[in-house]
Amino acid sequence: MEIDEEKVDEAILALLHLTLHDEGRAWKSFDWEAMNRLHEKGLIQNPVGKAKSVVFTEKGLEESERLFQQLFAKRS
User: Fold this and answer.
1) CATH number (domain holding residue 20)
2) CA neighbor of 34 nearest in space, from 43, 24, 22, 21
3) How far is C-alpha 45 from the geometric centre of its chain's CA atoms?
4) For the DUF6429 domain, which residue ranges apply (predicted)?
């Protein structure tokens, strides 16, 4: 099966929004390759380190909220 990494990255970014805390941090319990791709895209700060959370960039925080709404919000 061929995996669409762009869709995976969007879903992970949206799910990171679900664990948002401290005005821009999220728990980083996702696939390392995907986290590195999000970093390369400028959406999160470098995920490598001992911290159990990662910091969103301003662009990443906005995009994570948009994707969260798009993928998981109920429509009326």
Assistant:
1) 1.10.10.10
2) 43
3) 11
4) 4-74
Residue 20 class from Cβ within 10 Å (0-12 exposed, 13-18 middle, 19+ buried)?
Answer: middle
Using an 8 Å Cβ cutoff, are 72 and 14 in contact?
yes
- Helix or strand run (H / E) with residue 61: helix 58-72
Q: Is residue 34 part of a domain?
A: yes
Of 19, 17, 25, 20, which Cα lies nearest the Cα of 63? Answer: 17
